[in-house]
Amino acid sequence: MFDMALLIPLAPFLMVAFIVWSKHQKSLEEKRIEATASQTAEQAAQYASRVAQLEDRVRVLERIVTDKGYDVATQIEALRDERRVDEADSGVSIDSISKESV
To answer: With a threshold of 0.85, does the pTM exceed it?
Structure first.
């Protein structure tokens, strides 16, 4: 049978061990939180960058669609003419210059 006389001197040592263990657990949890926060911040920056790129692309598309000086068919034809010139490797097409008058 355990004597209380034996447990009383061990109590301070057990309390110190518990305090050390709890501080260690707290520091581990703080490191885990910091790692998660840095990963989250990095992902947020990547998402913000991607959103900015997509917004730029949407602005360009809106400008193409709503611009009064050009219409989409003319731009598509100009791109086709450029592709033909690139395939022929003969320089700039004369037709593409006349089609691009603003």
So the answer is: no
Amino acid identity of 62? E
Domain residue limits, the chain: 22-66, 68-102
| Whole-number Å distance between alpha carbons of 54 and 51 | 5
Q: Find tokens 């989409």 and name the residue.
A: 72
User: b/e for 37-74, b at 16 or more Cβ within 10 A?
Assistant: eeeeeeeeeeeeeeeeeeeeeeeeeeeeeeeeeeeeee
What distances in angstroms separate CA 71 from CA 60, 68, 90, 96, one per listed residue? 14, 7, 27, 14
- Per-residue pLDDT tens listing for the chain (102 residues): 567 777 888 889 999 999 999 999 999 999 999 999 999 999 999 999 999 999 998 888 888 777 665 566 777 777 777 766 666 655 555 555 555 554
From the CA atom positions of the chain, what is the Rg in Å? 35
